[in-house]
Design brief:
13 helices, Alpha-Beta Plaits, single chain, Beta-Lactamase, 2 domains, alpha+beta
Length: 404
């Protein structure tokens, strides 16, 4: 491969990273280009840690001879079988020794002493090289502090010195391209995890001007846990966070499954919205989320009772109204959320669940937006209530099946 070919591949890598091409596609395109120009690569892998609440990182694989899983997300590498395998890898060897490269001519007598090399040898590969490219402090985020890659060939002579020279020259460009896409993925993940999918989309589209908000009509959801204060005062301290996580997962997954967007978690409380062109559809989606939540709570509470852990229920207020949806805050700290009287009212409605002895309360406006079919016999008025901060008493409704 001459310098012109190397330049073309490097240029393609740069353009792929700038375009945000998927990491597995970048690796595949790189390996296929190498093969077209006479550098025989038969199998390759690239991996990089990430910043994610569940996964430690993502790995990308390519094989020129068979179909394989092209990408996978891996969990913590410090426990269980994953830890045992990680400690045996060439990547871990380079990480702990400070080395930048490991080569094993496994088809010519070199030991297959790292994890996976015996499989490569059995599959007919003759030569293997692994590399690590470390990032400086300014280029790291979370545990994403280096880029690992390895390449194997089944060529009878292994990797010629010239091919190794080319791989060493191009690997940094491969690392940069995959890191570029990986950084974009991390930005989306962080935004969606902390802001919610819809708010994250607005932010990543550039709608971050302070004070800029749009007026929308939405079904509003506010929920919190019944008897949370009492439970938190009596339960063991190390039970509180797992309990909050378990119930928050039930609430959030139900909202998302029904098409809603969670905007804010406030202790044990959850604020969400359901948007639709038709207000009745938005309210119907909120009721669907409520139904999904009740099933999840039944399953969750049954399991926690078996385990001898504290159980509770969710108080839920539903309302519909116009709100301002956008950026609120100071010059250096913004929140993408909803504000307006309707937001205050839905939280007040949820707080009345205790007084009304019901797990769900809905405003008259919410009920009126529902179609006639959805206003079933299960939907009944519980009377008029004075809501704190609201000028006049509001008629509230519940589901007969929601008795606390």
């Amino acid at each position: 491969m001459n310098d012109k070919d190397i330049g073309e591949i490097a240029g393609w890598l740069m353009q792929s990273g700038l375009k945000g091409m998927g990491e597995a596609d970048i690796l595949a395109g790189f390996c296929e280009a190498c093969c077209r120009h006479g550098l025989r690569v038969d199998r390759a892998m690239a991996l990089m840690d990430t910043l994610h609440p569940v996964y430690e990182g993502r790995a990308f694989r390519w094989d020129g001879n068979q179909s394989i899983e092209r990408e996978l997300e891996y969990g913590p590498s410090h426990q269980g079988i994953a830890a045992e395998n990680w400690l045996r890898t060439s990547f871990y060897h380079m990480l702990t020794t400070g080395g930048e490269e490991v080569r094993r001519r496994i088809g010519f007598g070199d030991p297959a002493d790292f994890f996976g090399l015996d499989t490569l040898l059995n599959d007919g590969h003759t030569d293997y090289i692994a590399m690590v490219h470390r990032f400086e402090a300014g280029g790291t985020i979370g545990e994403m502090d280096c880029f690992y890659s390895n390449f194997a060939t089944a060529a009878a002579a292994g990797f010629p010195d010239e091919d190794l020279r080319v791989l060493r020259k191009l690997a940094p460009a491969l690392a940069l391209a995959i890191k570029c896409t990986g950084m974009g993925r991390i930005a989306r993940t962080i935004a969606e995890v902390y802001l919610g999918e819809d708010a994250a989309r607005h932010v990543l589209e550039g709608k971050i001007t302070r004070g800029k908000a749009e007026r929308i009509s939405a079904a509003l959801w506010f929920s919190d846990l019944a008897n949370y204060t009492r439970i938190s005062d009596t339960a063991e301290p190390d039970e509180i966070i797992p309990m909050l996580n378990a119930y928050a997962d039930a609430v959030i997954s139900s909202i998302h499954e029904a098409g809603g967007n969670v905007l804010k978690l406030i202790g044990d409380g959850t604020l969400a919205i359901f948007k639709a062109r038709d207000s009745g559809d938005a309210c119907a989606a909120a009721l669907m989320a409520e139904s999904l939540l009740r099933q999840r709570l039944r399953d969750l509470n049954a399991q926690r009772q078996i385990e001898g852990r504290p159980v509770t229920e969710v108080y839920l207020g539903l309302h519909i109204g116009d709100v301002f949806y956008g950026n609120i805050g100071s010059m250096d700290r913004l929140d993408f959320t909803v504000i307006g009287p309707a937001v205050n009212e839905v939280s007040r409605i949820a707080s009345m669940c205790r007084s009304a002895d019901r797990n769900i309360l809905m405003s008259a406006n919410f009920v009126e937006a529902l179609s006639a079919a959805e206003q079933s016999n299960d939907l009944v008025s519980v009377g008029r209530y004075a809501l704190r901060g609201v000028n006049r008493p509001q008629e509230l409704f519940t589901l007969l099946s929601s008795a606390a």
